[in-house]
Amino acid sequence: MHIQLLKSKIHRVKVTQAELHYVGSITIDEDLLDAANMIENEKVQIVNINNGERFETYIIKGERGTGTVCLNGPAARRVQVGDMIIVISYASMDFEEAKKFKPTIVFPDASNRLIR
Question: What CDD domains is this protein classified in (predicted)?
Fold first, then answer.
């Protein structure tokens, strides 16, 4: 039996841009992606802390060290610049393996930089 569980989470990151007229996705600073064990094109769930919206999209790698978190395309309508969001990815794994698995959780600072 396989189950779905939390693989990675970027917790309380600030939206820096919303680009309606762009191919849909979320652009995330590559430093945040590396820290969270996420990759480009990975499916993610976005939870908007400010308005309660929950939706799915995929990741585009953003410029390293910029703190960029940009919702693109239709997803841009679900956020405002400055909103706090949670970016979540899940994995499917064997039930016994899942019991031992530890997710990666990142808590960025107010500028979307890694807390060292």
Answer: Asp_decarbox
Catalytic residues: 25, 58
CA distance 5 to 12: 19
Confidence of residue 116 (pLDDT cuts 50, 70, 90): low
What residue segments make up the domains of the chain, in order of their start?
2-103
pLDDT tens digits, 65-93: 999 999 999 999 999 999 999 999 999 99
Q: Is 75 annotated as a binding residue?
A: yes
Structure tokens at 70: 């940009």
* pLDDT tens readout for residues 20-50: 999 879 999 999 999 999 999 999 999 999 9
Q: What is the architecture of the domain spanning 2-103?
A: Beta Barrel (2.40)
Of 38, 57, 39, 35, nearest in space to 47 by CA: 57
- Find out whether 108 is annotated in a ligand binding site: no
